[in-house]
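Narrative of accomplishments. A recurring question from our advisory board has been how the design workflow behaves on a single, concrete structure rather than in aggregate. To address it, we present the structure tokens for one chain from the evaluation set, followed by the sequence designed for it. No filtering or post-editing was applied between the two.
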């Protein structure tokens, strides 16, 4: 009887001990996520660097001067110089907005996909227009590549479109105005892939 009492006590103590133990956590691999923006532009100039997350809520909306519009072939040259050469897959719109794609050759209708993607990020309310932006001061060409509001969507701005020594807010506001034109009346000028550049008539 003493043995059985001792055995029962041992079982109770063992049970109590196991209840107080914390379960060993199972280690899990971190979930991989896409970067906020791909390294799609050339290296910024060392003198100026990259200006990030510039809000423009206090700025008056910019108006695109149609007289300063860049001719399609000239715009193509600027954007080609702005994009890292290893990025072959992109679509360029009339006002300087360009979208960099992954594996463009796997997309059945790239024009429709580019139009849908741009429309997906078109501001639906006034508040939506206040997205922050990142400006890259380009090394291979004069001008800026402005990123924001949509993975892989950029807008090129040339210095001749703005006043001398514009502030980051002015550059960003002008890029937003150019992009708004491409969102309102989207016209694709060129499609680039590993096979070369196709001009859209």
């Amino acid at each position: 009887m003493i043995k059985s009492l001792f055995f029962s006590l041992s079982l109770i103590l063992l049970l109590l001990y196991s209840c107080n133990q914390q379960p060993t956590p199972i280690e899990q691999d971190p979930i991989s996520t896409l970067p906020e923006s791909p390294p799609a532009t050339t290296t910024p100039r060392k003198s100026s660097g990259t200006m990030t997350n510039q809000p423009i809520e206090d700025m008056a909306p910019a108006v695109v001067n149609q007289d300063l519009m860049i001719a399609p072939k000239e715009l193509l040259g600027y954007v080609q110089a702005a994009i890292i050469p290893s990025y072959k897959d992109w679509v360029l719109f009339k006002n300087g907005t360009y979208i960099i794609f992954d594996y463009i050759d796997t997309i059945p209708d790239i024009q429709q996909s580019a139009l849908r993607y741009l429309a997906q990020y078109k501001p639906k309310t006034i508040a939506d227009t206040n997205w922050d932006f990142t400006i890259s001061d380009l090394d291979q060409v004069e001008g800026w590549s402005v990123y924001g509001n949509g993975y892989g969507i950029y807008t090129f701005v040339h210095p001749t479109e703005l006043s001398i020594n514009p502030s980051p807010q002015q550059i960003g506001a002008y890029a937003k105005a150019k992009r708004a034109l491409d969102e309102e009346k989207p016209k694709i000028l060129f499609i680039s892939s590993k096979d070369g550049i196709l001009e859209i008539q």
